[in-house]
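Hi U.,

Before I forget, here's the chain from the pilot set. I'm dumping it here mostly so it's searchable later in email.
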Amino acid sequence: MLQYVIWDINPEIFHIGSFSVRWYGLLFAMGFLIGMQIMTYIFKKENKPVADTDTLLIYMVVATILGARIGHFLFYEPEVLLHRPLDVIIPPYSGLASHGATIGILTALWLYSRRKGSQLTNQTFLWVTDRIVIAVALGGASIRLGNLMNSEIVGRPSDVPWAFIFMNNTEYAKIPRHPAQLYESLSCLVLFFFLLWFWNRHKERTPRGSMLGIFLIWVFTLRFFYEYLKENQVAFEDSLPLNVGQLLSIPAVLLGIYFLVRSYRIPIPQADFEDNPKELKS
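Structure:
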């Protein structure tokens, strides 16, 4: 039976001169690359132009990075955003907020759907978001694994047999703690497989907004409770009844409930099946 796990993984894979390749960057990039392959598969299955996945990838990369960076400074370090706004786009990207990334992605997909939704491809906002959350769930698992490799976003002290001692985290070293990053990574991985199964079962008949709703409810409900197991990111959170991550998760869950309930009350337009008549026979 494990007493604890000594976690002393070097966050750097290798370096050449001043250039280094880190696990976090590799896992971050892999999330996008694998996600694009997933979206390509979905576009083929639902008879959408595969070339559009290149445009979609650009929207997603820009939205994720900008949204996460702006969100971090807006929610956790607003004084930096006010006095040094260029820090948002200047490396290293040491602060990324998942709530900010969520807002950025939803905004970008709305803009993307404005271009594609009215065309013959019929890529409406809810059609795109219902599919992209499959890739985002896998990307979330990959990014949280990157946080684990960086020994960051650590949990509170714990005596559970799987507790980690983060040797490379000078602030929280030598005390067994919850591997909160691993909890979130595994949760996202479970969500990825469920959403992929759900889509594979329904495809064009997927109720519009249902998968987006499931994603928001699952991710941010768990995030709310995981925050009880994690150290606060900034000092001012210590005086709050709920930390920033929990406060931001509440509206995200409510939005997810709205989309999920709405999805089963509004029928799918028959026009959505016209691009792939084979699905009507299945």
